[in-house]
Amino acid sequence: MYYLSIDFGTSTVKMEVLDDNLTVLASQKQEYPYILLPGEKVEIDPDVLFEATEQAAQRLPADLRSQVGALCYDTFSPSPVFIAEDGTLAYPNIITHMDRRSRAITDYIDEVVGKERYLSIAGIYPFAGGAGIMTILWMQQNEPEVLENTYRIGHLPTYVHHRLTGEWMVDLVNASMLGLYETTSQGGWSAELLDAFGLKHEWFGDIRNPGEFLGTLLPEVAERFGIPAGIPVAVGTNDMASAQMGARNDRAGRIMNTAGSSDMVSILIDKPVTNPGYYLRNSALPGVWQIYATTAGGFGIDWFYEQFCRELDRATFNNEYLPSCVERFVADGEVTFDPYLTGDRQSLEKRTGAWHGLTLAATRDEMLAAMLKSMNRVLYDVVKLASDVVDLDSVIKLTGGLSGPAFIKLKEQEFPGFTFEVVDNCSVLGNVELVRHHNGRLAA
């Protein structure tokens, strides 16, 4: 059987046709913009996202598309969506994890249930950008008409799946990422939290396992993608959870580092231990959790290039300038950096990026090296916390655009005792692995 596997990233959709041996037969991608609005709002137009998806699909070879027998996908998240009964969005856009409109909700959650009680149920502190509950409660307080017109609430997989099949669901991973789920026990939606905040239980659908087939592809979507109508569609999930499966990480102690637009680390554990310093989330496999943290990654590098290096073309910057900075500033100097260009989803306070130790002797080369080192140290701090919970593998699987030799050298310097193994296409492969796992056919 051929699979069409789709990865909905923060700024790009990628898709591949794969066979039963997980051989990639064809691949395409298409970028789409996100929308920056006043009030720290960061959103994506759903029609623009699906138009980009259709464009990428239509560039795949027609003969392969005609043989696709199943569709599977993953998405970025948190990505709150408020969906009307007819499947359109009650709030017009997808709200991304970079959105920070809901900062004040942290104090509200603390007032209603207390941060520690909330942590003991949901597995996290209530961070802006870290859980869908923040945006849900912001809507309740600021745009209640959105909730009046809402039939279902979820993250992007809920919307994508309904648009593909007409079926309603929330996948296991995004259930915990919504922040209204009993993550520490994997016990389902928390009646305590829903009732405490006056949220309707019926807004949140049945929780399904990633990779489970639920519904079939609607004819109108099939026509636009150029693939057969009526093929089964697997329940999608969060991109990092899928990437773990694509890297063959399916047991406690395995570590995944996805280094792209954001630089993320996920450590699988088999007992739910909470800590304010990381997110505790479900993994794609029932009975397994993940410890998770993220930092700016490629977003920070893109910002540095635009502000300081525009005289260089991007190829020279990426392939020559950046590696040379990493190699020449291995040891720490006076210049350091606070790695919060995109904020900090592990903090209750608003954090921003900043260099320290700048003098007339400082150079942009040293400033870039300090920025890159500091971002990796954020992730290593979480790995150290995880080492108190589970015995860790010494090999970290690495994927994404920031996985070249210079980045590996930097990471192995900043993660003492660990080595990095580069793996490709993890999320796209992981989607298929989840289908095979759910059907008892996980590849050997």
Q: Can you describe this structure?
A:
With 444 residues, the chain is an alpha/beta fold. The chain folds into 2 domains: 252 residues, Nucleotidyltransferase, domain 5; 174 residues, Nucleotidyltransferase, domain 5 (2-Layer Sandwich), CATH 3.30.420. The chain is built from 16 helices and 22 strands. The protein has a 6-stranded mixed sheet, with helices on both faces. Strands 3-2-1-6-14 form a 5-stranded mixed sheet, with helices on both faces. Strands 4-5-8 form a 3-stranded antiparallel sheet. Strand 2 and strand 3 form a beta hairpin. The longest helix has 23 residues. It starts with a strand and ends in a 6-residue tail after the last helix.
Keywords:
five-stranded mixed sheet, 444 residues, alpha/beta, Nucleotidyltransferase, domain 5, FGGY_Carb_Kinase, kinase activity, ATPase_NBD, six-stranded mixed sheet, 22% strand, 2 domains, 16 helices, FGGY_N, Sugar (Pentulose or hexulose) kinase
